[in-house]
Amino acid sequence: MKNKRILITGGTGSFGRAFAKKILTEEDPHSIVIFSRDEWKQWEMRNSDPIFQSEKIRYFLGDIRDRSRLKRAFQDVNYVVHAAALKQVPAAEYNPTEFILTNVLGSSHIIEASLDAGVEKVIALSTDKAVNPVNLYGATKLCADKLFISGNSYVGRRGFPIFSVARYGNVLKSRGSLIELWKKKIQEGAKSLPITDERMTRFWMTIEQATSFVVQSLREMQGGEIFVPKIPSMKICDVAKTLAPNLPTEIVGIREGEKVHELLISEEEGRRTVDRGSYYVISGKESKELFMPEGFFYGSQNNDQWLKPEELSQLLAN
Ligand SMILES: NC(=O)c1ccc[n+]([C@@H]2O[C@H](COP(=O)([O-])OP(=O)(O)OC[C@H]3O[C@@H](n4cnc5c(N)ncnc54)[C@H](OP(=O)(O)O)[C@@H]3O)[C@@H](O)[C@H]2O)c1
After folding, report:
1. Which of 37, 68, 102, 106 is deepest in the core (most CB within 10 A)?
2. 299 lines ligand 1 (CB under 6 A)
3. Distance of alpha carbon 137 from alpha carbon 85, whole angstroms
4. Which pLDDT value is given to residue 255?
5. Residue from 125, 131, 209 to probe ligand 1 pocket by mutation (most atoms less than 8 Å from CB)
């Protein structure tokens, strides 16, 4: 990314901040544009760390629903990392149109603006909830994945922009995450931790893993791939026991829009998936690489990597 102009939509979010910091310290970019709506979050980000006062960072207020603002922001940009999204599952169920406008329509605006401005590479962040979705958040992210992959059909003879997706599971310590909510409850003196289903498993990763994975995906993308990291699973009740070994758990029943296990690669996608060691690629094109055997899927329950309680404690302490 040396000397590249990089724009991060949702640059003030958990991912955006960590990604901006990583590329400023490791990649020597020409400049970074932080694109988001809320002036307060931008002010708070700028003042949270001296690195965010770098002359290389430009704070750009705008909404991805607004095409003209995106057009202005994307001028001379080389790479776009699309992290802006609405992401709270219950909020999506109550405000479906808002999620569709931001996560679906906003994503299509990113594609159009990238094509018009001649951006070179565009990568969108996706989630396990987009695979065989059961809630509106996941469904909007699935639409966004499809829009990005199909964006490659407009590339034409000039050969760019190319579009790919990086899809991963729960990020520890990200804003609004379950663990953060539980930590708050524990601090407030909760007598028990609510768990919806004892069998429930999830994929877990750190923000450092997420940002490194996106850097690597940006480097390797040819257009049309969905990149999926191999990350460990852990049962939700083991997470609760690790956070508060002395607190009982209370089974409250599975909520609407929740799955017992998450999927990062469905069986249908498995037929177009290649194994690259530390990660998988769901290929958009014919591939010379060997696809996974029939019946392969990557679920949080059939994972061969499991996070141990002491490993989780260590990750949370860092
Ligand atoms: N956190 C996870 O566990 C996780 C897991 C898998 C995938 N992901 C994906 O990773 C991405 C980043 O997640 P995150 O945890 O960093 O989320 P986050 O902390 O909630 O940040 C979201 C960012 O998007 C911006 N935003 C929201 N609506 C916008 C709009 N209409 N126009 C412009 N900016 C907008 C927000 O700023 P303003 O409100 O100021 O606009 C904020 O900067 C999302 O696409 C999410 O789906 C997250």
Report:
1. 106
2. no
3. 9
4. 87
5. 125
Task: Name the residue among 85, 154, 160, 83 with its Cα closest to residue 120.
Answer: 160
- Provide the pLDDT for residue 176: 82
Q: How far is CA 266 from CA 130, 279, 281, in A?
A: 10, 15, 12
56 in catalytic set: no
Distance 116 CA to ligand 1 centre (A): 24
Does the structural domain 5-169 have CATH classification 3.40.1360.10? no
Name the catalytic one among 4, 41, 87, 129.
129
- Is the minimum distance from the CB of 65 to ligand 1 under 6 angstroms? yes
- Average pLDDT over every residue of 304-317: 94
Does the beta carbon of 300 lie inside 6 Å of ligand 1? no
Domain ranges in the chain are: 5-169
Tell me the per-residue pLDDT of 259-297, one tens digit each, with 9 for 90 and over.
999 999 999 999 999 999 999 999 977 777 899 999 999
pTM value > 0.85: yes
Contacts for 13 with CB less than 8 Å, ≥ 6 apart:
36, 83, 84, 175
Q: Give the SS3 label for residue 100.
A: helix
